[in-house]
Automatic annotation (TrEMBL):
This is DUF3168 domain-containing protein. InterPro entries: Gp17-like, Viral_Tail_Comp_sf. The lineage of its organism: Bacteria, Pseudomonadati, Pseudomonadota, Alphaproteobacteria, Rhodobacterales. It comes from Halovulum marinum.
């Protein structure tokens, strides 16, 4: 096991989200690898960012692999949870059941772990943090 598959997974997740018509309909092109560092007035009303990741060994006697727990966060400057929750649902639908193409390795499984909707940090009114688990095999 190594951290070698992390970049391939991140790229595949980003490409899947940034190419999903339902998510784009809700947030436009505001899908980021990291939250935009903008002045409060310039921060998009609704946007999505890839978040933290934790990786552990997923190898077996016959194959090398890793288990990646990662987050995708919907950030909103709007009152209420309706729009951020709709965007969070679109993220889930875009990722779950998707055949992600990795530049290295193979996606064995991708599942939803949890979600947390709360009041956000400064420049956010609401946010929804989604946690996923990807099992990868290095082939």
């Amino acid at each position: 096991m190594s951290y070698a598959l992390s970049s391939a997974l991140q790229t595949a997740v980003y490409q899947r989200l940034s190419g999903d018509p339902a998510l784009i309909d809700l947030v436009g092109q505001e899908i980021h690898d990291a939250p935009p560092q903008l002045a409060p007035a310039e921060t998009p009303d609704l946007h999505v960012s890839l978040g933290e990741e934790r990786v552990k060994d997923g190898s077996t006697k016959t194959s090398s692999g890793s288990v990646h727990d990662f987050t995708v966060t919907v950030h909103a400057r709007t009152e209420g949870f309706s729009r951020p929750k709709a965007a969070a649902a679109a993220v889930c639908e875009a990722l779950l059941g998707a055949d992600l193409t990795l530049t290295r390795g193979h996606l064995v499984d991708l599942r939803f772990l949890s979600a947390r909707a709360d009041r956000g940090r400064p420049n956010e009114t609401r946010r929804v943090e989604l946690r996923f688990r990807a099992v990868l095999e290095d082939i």
